[in-house]
Amino acid sequence: MSGQLEVRGLRVVFDGFQAITDLDFTVQPGELRFLIGPNGAGKTTLIDVVTGRTKPASGSVRFNGTELVGRREHAIVRLGVGRTFQTSVVFEELSVLENLDLAASFRRGLPALLRARRGVSGVVAAVLDTTGLNALADRPAGVLSHGQRQWLEIGMLLVQRPSLLLLDEPVAGMSRGERERTGHLLQAVAKDHTVVVIEHDMEFLRRFASQVTVLHEGRLLCEGTVGEVQADPRVQEVYLGRSSSKKEPVV
Ligand SMILES: Nc1ncnc2c1ncn2[C@@H]1O[C@H](COP(=O)(O)OP(=O)(O)OP(=O)(O)O)[C@@H](O)[C@H]1O
Ligand SMILES: [Mg+2]
After folding, report:
1. I need a labelling partner for 9 at 20 to 30 A (CA). Which of 47, 85, 130, 222 fits?
2. Average pLDDT of 200-216?
3. Reported pTM
4. Substitution site in 15, 21, 43 for ligand 1 pocket (most atoms within 8 Å of beta carbon)
5. Ligand number, closest to the Cα atom of 17
6. Domains of the chain, with CATH numbers?
7. Is the confidence at residue 5, as pLDDT, over 50?
8. Which atom of ligand 1 is nearest to the CA of 38?
């Protein structure tokens, strides 16, 4: 079956080290897909390849049928692919609203960036609602809690109207309450977007994931529902065999 995102035969090599090997990965439109795997499994590298940040040694990445390999990062953003990073990219001294406005104008282009802003645009207002950041719109981003900052980053993607969002560990370091709100936010976003989320927290997966893909040492280990993945002996071995890992075991 063809998907919105189709990765085929992907191989990524860094200085002779094979970070991703023969990877096939398909995501259907409107899916909320979780991507898990131990440290160094290749999760971030996969997102880096999809978004044009890293060039693969071989393989294909198709988005709505369009080949992404060989395209530049900004061209891939314009095609409707948005991503967050493991580290924060908000402007601390700007307000929540200004950060959203600025992100929205990246997609609209320089004229919009230079034009004096008249009121809050429809898309920004809608995203303030979706992310629950309305009451904080005029606060500097630098004073936000860790969770609020992550929601702002997701909001900064949403205002660019991507159809596919790739989120790299959005709930890492969050409190239980913040994780819960983020889960609901992701489910709301997935109603009209395709979402791929890298996450390690198994309690979070049990609560919010349906389909899960497990990577290990650059290869696809298994795919299925949370229950299927947890019951897979290969997954148990990969996680339980690494008792020194800072990540929570899968079982
Ligand atoms: N730019 C790079 N140069 C060299 N090696 C790299 C580079 N980026 C990633 N790697 C290596 O590729 C492998 C996969 O890294 P990647 O960051 O994709 O893992 P990950 O699954 O996201 O792990 P984590 O859970 O720690 O974020 C690791 O061994 C990493 O050290
Ligand atoms: Mg990573």
Report:
1. 85
2. 90
3. 0.90
4. 43
5. 1
6. 5-89+162-240 (3.40.50.300)
7. yes
8. 25
